[in-house]
Write a structure and sequence with these properties.
The chain has 22 helices and 17 strands. The protein is an alpha/beta fold and 577 residues long. Strands 4-6-5-9-11-10-16-17-15-13-14 form an eleven-stranded mixed beta sheet, sandwiched between helices. Strands 1-2 form a two-stranded parallel sheet. α1 (29-36) links the parallel β1 (5-6) and β2 (37-38). α2 (67-77) packs antiparallel against α11 and α5 packs antiparallel against α6 (143-158). The longest helix is centred in the C-terminal third of the chain and has 24 residues, at 403-426. It is globular.
Length: 577
Amino acid sequence: MGNKRVMVPADEVDLTVVKYEPEVIQGLCYQQMLCKSVIPETPMYKPEFPTQEPEPGVVGLEEDGKPEDRVECALKCLPNYDAGNCWTGDSTPSFRYWKIRDYAYAYRSGLANPSMVAERFITAVEEFSRKKLPTPLLISFDAEELRKQAAASTQRFKEGNPLSILDGIFMAIKDDIDCYPHPSKGATTWLHEVRPVRKDAVCVSRLRSCGVIFVGKANMHEIGLGTTGNNPNYGTPRNPHASDRYTGGSSSGPAAIVASGLCSAALGTDGGGSVRIPSSLCGVVGLKTTYGRTDMKGSLCDAGTVEIIGPIAANVEDVMLVYAAILGSSPSDRISLRSSIPCLPTLSSSESSNALGSLRLGKYTEWFNDVFSTDISQKCDNILNLLLEKHGCKTIEIAIPELHEMLMAHLVSIGSESLCKLKPDYEDGKDVKLTYDTRINLVLFQSFTASDYVAAQRLRRRLMYHHMEILKKVDVIVTPTTGMTAPVIPRKALKVGETDLQVTGNLMRFIIAPNLLGLPAISVPVGYDNQGLPIGIQLIGRPWAEASLLRLAAAVEDLCPEPKKKPMSFYDMLKGN
């Protein structure tokens, strides 16, 4: 056998003797592990899910129906809410984010209109550019285009014909998702030259039909190949809670825009935590849907096997509303993935309360506690205790085998697929126009062989088996979203970028399974560390079980004992305060 490593079949692994190993193997060590491993499973080239049991306490949505009809259905699933009382400031906390329902109330009551909000947004963008520490949240912005959309929405409200609860709601779109007439650069300096945008991405088109107003293309880590949001091309977005800290990436701009109060929601992409990491670091909510739940057509990562388009918002109910609008598998995914009917939780019903109380939460304690600061694990543990105390949600100890192998399989998969997409332009001389950290990543990806890729897909099948077995015993796997809070931005990195594998390891520690295996996951804020930086908890569910995750996320949000802190960089777009 030499020094080959022969892995036993997945169904012969004893989960009771799994030992957690905190060391993270980096770079080419992944490739060496693959070369020396004999993996008995057949390859799984994209997520394949077993048939799932129906979720309790939910309402089904029509994928082929109108997005505005799905949004209306989602609205009926929300608990009662007195927007008028919140508008006057009675019985409200010292700081809160405005909900989409607050905007809708203000528009319908004549207290504000989309054109007023548009002017405040334009003023805020100008103010951002004049700051001592510039915060470039948008890569593409057209004030006149924004005014045009806002005027059309304002007119619909004057006529009493808003398209949906999302009419007049301002959203940012990550720069790797098409939003006509803006270019899609992927935060590079050249991609728009070889890939012109002629129409909206499918998800954007669905939102547009609901009356959403698009503010432009949000900043991101170049090509999405980074976890901090650093971008020397257009400037690095700064965390609204601390200007010397990263937002997280790669959906850095979308998360920072929402956390700053500039937009109610944003769309990001998530191939390796790129929605959940910045949501956690910026103190907002980010949903990574099941692979194939949303149509990827019109995004730069539309041909991969680990990426999704997902919503970011300040609260769970706004994520629900946006998710209802954008969901709907592509025709090919609907056939190959055999997706379950998309559903939403009926949050105000007794049936929903019963479903919440019956949830079994899985916790791998040694992994859960492998964090940079104990503040993170303690805040997340507090929520688990409150869920048990208030709702009867039991926490069950689990063990997840082969975490290093999972990291390896994900890196080879996303790396090979990213390189394949970029290779024609890369070999045409565009590589010299990329930032240094992107080039370093692509050099690593070029070292992966065809046999490495096949081995990674063998691991995908093996790891899918492990997780499906675990999810027979628990309903949701719970972890911190990240292993650290927002890292400091090194001054030199603003000009040339940086590659810090320790930071990457800390930020990505818990987020790989949903991407490699296509599972749904959501990050919800649960408080702050001793420096006042946001902490997020991650909930990972069964395939197609977004409704159960949203129900649990709403409960987590309600139970969070710490009041929301107003970010240092915050704008009140609705009242203009």
